[in-house]
């Protein structure tokens, strides 16, 4: 029996509307292209032996840099990576081997032709640069990333003193993007990370005016706001953004 390639996402109920339907659409889009699409949750992340220490450290660095408490949403942005790191420690048949590569994505990243044979870099590969919506790696890569969140931040606290928001994407932007950190290359090498952005091949926001060739479409909150601004006749500004996002995704899947 052939081994199905896996993609994982993380879902935590923090009060956002219509998320279950969104997760199901994500799952269907990837399974229709031959993937085994698996949803992880907070209970799974809690199985990681470093969970309590990790959460405490994320709360600390957020408070240290911003002077504010880390929200439930912000916490989930960090904890999802710990769930992916836990995959290397679990012997459940749905989890990968310790050295197996797999994809992880936000559950608003919809498959637009991505096939299991499409294999990115051998490193921890962020496929939309410092936006962590789609990535490829091994459990060991994600475990190292989780340690980096705290270690890198503490080393660069002085350079990050002007940061007023600090979730996982801000972490990548301010530490691993050369535009914000002249020494980013050293960190990329140390943590075995590569960040690329190919909007024609890998992942891109949805744009109804283009025949998009990228293999995944990121229908994010920002993407929906852009659609409402640029195409008001097709995507009216009134109404719930969550409902419009579901509508857009269904349009993509029906093509």
How does this model look, in words?
By secondary structure, this protein is α/β, with parallel strands linked by helices. The protein has one domain (6-199). It is built from 9 helices and 9 strands. A hairpin with a 7-residue loop joins β5 (124-126) and β6. α3 packs antiparallel against α4 (72-86), α3 (51-66) runs parallel beside α5 and α4 packs across α5 (139-155). The longest helix is centred in the middle third of the chain and has 17 residues, at 139-155. It is globular and about 50 Å long.
What is the strand and helix layout of this fold?
Layout: E1 6-10, H1 19-31, E2 36-40, H2 42-45, H3 51-66, H4 72-86, E3 102-105, E4 109-111, E5 124-126, E6 134-137, H5 139-155, H6 168-176, H7 184-190, E7 193-195, E8 203-205, E9 216-218, H8 221-230, H9 241-254
Parallel strand pairs: 1-2, 1-3, 5-7, 8-9
Antiparallel strand pairs: 3-6, 4-9, 5-6
Helix pairs in contact: 1-9, 3-4, 3-5, 4-5
> What spatial form do the alpha-carbon principal axes imply?
globular
Q: What is the β-strand count?
A: 9
Rg is 18 Å
Q: Helical percent range?
A: 40-55%
Low-confidence blocks of residues:
none
Quick structural summary:
With 255 residues, the protein is an alpha/beta fold. 41% of the residues lie in helices and 13% in strands.
Summary keywords:
single chain, 255 residues, six-stranded mixed β-sheet, 9 helices, 13% strand, globular
């Amino acid at each position: 029996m052939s081994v199905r390639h896996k993609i994982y996402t993380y879902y935590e109920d923090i009060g956002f509307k219509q998320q279950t339907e969104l997760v199901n659409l994500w799952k269907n889009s990837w399974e229709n292209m031959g993937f085994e699409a698996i949803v992880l949750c907070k209970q799974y992340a809690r199985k990681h032996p470093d969970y309590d220490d990790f959460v405490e450290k994320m709360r600390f660095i957020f408070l240290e840099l911003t002077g504010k408490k880390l929200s439930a949403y912000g916490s989930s942005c960090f904890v999802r990576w710990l769930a992916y790191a836990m995959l290397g420690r679990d012997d459940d048949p749905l989890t990968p081997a310790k050295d197996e590569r797999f994809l992880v994505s936000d559950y608003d990243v919809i498959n637009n032709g991505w096939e299991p044979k499409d294999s990115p870099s051998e490193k921890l590969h962020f496929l939309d640069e410092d936006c962590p919506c789609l990535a490829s790696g091994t459990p060991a890569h994600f475990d190292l990333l989780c340690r980096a969140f705290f270690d890198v931040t503490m080393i660069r606290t002085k350079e990050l003193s002007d940061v007023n928001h600090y979730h996982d994407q801000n972490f990548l932007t301010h530490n691993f993007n050369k535009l914000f950190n002249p020494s980013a290359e050293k960190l990329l090498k140390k943590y075995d990370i590569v960040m690329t952005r190919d909007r024609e091949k890998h992942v891109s926001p949805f744009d109804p005016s283009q025949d998009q060739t990228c293999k995944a479409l990121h229908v994010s909150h920002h993407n929906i706001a852009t659609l409402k601004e640029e195409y008001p006749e097709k995507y009216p500004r009134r109404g719930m953004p969550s409902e419009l996002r579901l509508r857009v995704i269904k349009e993509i899947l029906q093509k």
